[in-house]
Design goal:
Distance between the termini: 89 Å
InterPro entries: 4OHPhenylPyrv_dOase (IPR005956), 4OHPhenylPyrv_dOase_C (IPR041735), 4OHPhenylPyrv_dOase_N (IPR041736), Glyas_Bleomycin-R_OHBP_Dase (IPR029068), Glyas_Fos-R_dOase_dom (IPR004360), VOC_core (IPR037523)
Strand content: 25-35%
Structural class: alpha+beta
Largest sheet: 9 strands, mixed
Pfam families: Glyoxalase
Subcellular location: Cytoplasm
Number of helices: 12
Protein name: 4-hydroxyphenylpyruvate dioxygenase
Number of strands: 19
Bound molecules: fe (ii) ion
Organism: Escallonia rubra
Length: 444
């Protein structure tokens, strides 16, 4: 290689390295200035669905249906002529969960798959590595082919090229983090009806589950845990054009309480929110993100935050089913947390509502714009990995161009304040126990 060519090659390598170097530094919550450059690289509509890969879709779908109040609305399985995979679609409002499991490869006819990106080999390594988990986060875009080609041109690693489904819809996939893909879905004719995807047939739920609905309406955010935040954020930002929406570092909330750094990416209208977490090491307590990464054998979806239109109703319904096949919740905070809550949110929540929060174990946080009510389930499956968050956001009501009222995305934040608030209330509670022990000498 000549000298000039060598210099050029070195310069190119340096340029490539610098384009790969993290383009941001975490500045912490207080120094973070929120702006919306509306920098999406392709038109994004909404979260479309979340696909879980399981060993047996019938059982997992029914458990989620019962636990979350989401009827099973559509299916693609042997009964509809699909010999590759069994898939069941649950829906509540705009939230769609899809549960997929493989049939025996020996009977599979590839052309019969409703989700043609399904692969037996990917599924079997996914299931062996991760157990139950999210395979695909799907977003509806204006044009899945354009979203895919633009993403790949900006560094996305392709997982499946665009595939036309029955001349009605297109799906394409790129790698997101770990073994999770970002799936683009677009429809040929807009506005589309109740069609999910071609190849799915409706399930009649009216006789078996009349009015099954706990008030869950849509997916608010889907959080990923990764080993290293900077390269993961850079990668996703680069190919989606999504912008920084919020962040906090371990220092913001006290290292031993959180053990994580976090950053949120948002689409133009801030309705597709993708937070990412990385573990922080050397803390008193082991980082919960590190625990996840070990049990999940790598990066993956940590939690899905589901918006309820009435969190009290949703929680009452879900808690009734906790011990009989539904989902269990993390332990409720001590009463000291709710005593302090009147000072923190007494202007937004009535005394009755604060009492209801305490009865149901709901946490409350706020940011400069609104208030967030939140609660976390225990892990959904065998491993301490993926869980669900139920939320309701209060405030930030805006009018669109047509005068329709809507709520601004991410209103009230993501619950950052609860790390320190929970820690404080547990400390206060422990002090009350201490005081009791002093007042009641041993043996009394
Ligand atoms: Fe969350």
């Amino acid at each position: 290689m000549g000298k000039a060519a060598e210099t050029n090659a070195t310069a190119a390598a340096a340029a490539q390295a610098s384009s790969r170097a993290p383009s941001f530094k975490l500045v912490g919550y207080d120094n973070f200035v929120r702006t919306n450059p509306r920098s999406d690289r392709f038109p994004v509509r909404r979260f479309h669905h979340v696909e879980f890969w399981c060993g047996d879709a019938t059982n997992v779908a029914r458990r989620f249906s019962w636990g979350l109040g989401m009827p099973i609305l559509a299916k693609s399985d042997l009964s509809t002529g699909n010999s590759v995979h069994a898939s069941y679609l649950l829906r509540s409002g705009h939230l769609r969960f899809l549960f997929t499991a493989p049939y025996s490869p020996s009977i599979a006819t590839a052309a019969s798959a409703a989700i043609p990106t399904f692969s037996h080999s990917s599924h079997s390594s996914f299931a062996a590595s991760h157990g139950l988990g999210v395979r695909a986060l799907a977003i509806e875009v204006e044009d899945a082919e354009f979203a895919f080609s633009t993403s790949v041109a900006h560094g996305a690693r392709p997982s499946s090229p665009p595939i036309h489904l029955d001349n009605q819809a297109v799906i394409a996939e790129v790698h997101l983090y770990g073994d999770v893909v970002l799936r683009y879905v677009s429809y040929k004719n807009s506005p589309h009806s109740d069609l999910f995807l071609p190849g799915f047939e409706s399930v009649d739920t009216t006789s078996s589950f009349p009015n099954l609905d706990f008030g869950i309406r849509r997916l608010d955010h889907a959080v990923g845990n990764v080993h290293e935040l900077a390269p993961a954020i850079d990668y996703i930002k680069q190919f989606t054009g999504f912008h920084d929406f919020a962040e906090f570092t371990a220092e913001d909330v006290g290292t031993s309480e959180s053990g994580l750094n976090s950053m949120v990416l948002a689409s133009n209208d801030e309705m597709v929110l993708l937070p990412l977490n990385e573990p922080v090491y050397g803390t008193k307590r082991k980082s919960q993100i590190q625990t996840y990464l070990e049990h999940n054998a790598g990066a993956g979806v940590q939690h899905l935050a589901l918006v309820s239109e009435d969190i009290f109703r949703t929680l009452r319904e879900m808690r009734q089913r906790s011990g009989v096949g539904g989902f269990e919740f993390m332990p409720s905070p001590p009463s000291t947390y709710y005593k302090n809550l009147k000072n923190r949110a007494g202007d937004v929540l009535s005394d009755e509502q604060i009492k209801e929060c305490e009865e149901l174990g709901i946490l409350v946080d706020r940011d400069d714009q609104g208030t967030l009510l939140q609660i976390f389930t225990k892990p959904l499956g065998d491993r301490p990995t993926i869980f669900i968050e139920i939320i309701q956001r209060i405030g930030c009501m805006l009018k669109d161009d047509e005068g329709k009222i809507y709520q601004k995305g991410g209103c009230g934040g993501f619950g950052k304040g609860n790390f320190s608030e929970l820690f404080k209330s547990i400390e206060e509670y422990e002090k009350t126990l201490e005081a009791r022990r002093i007042a009641e000498p041993a043996g009394a």
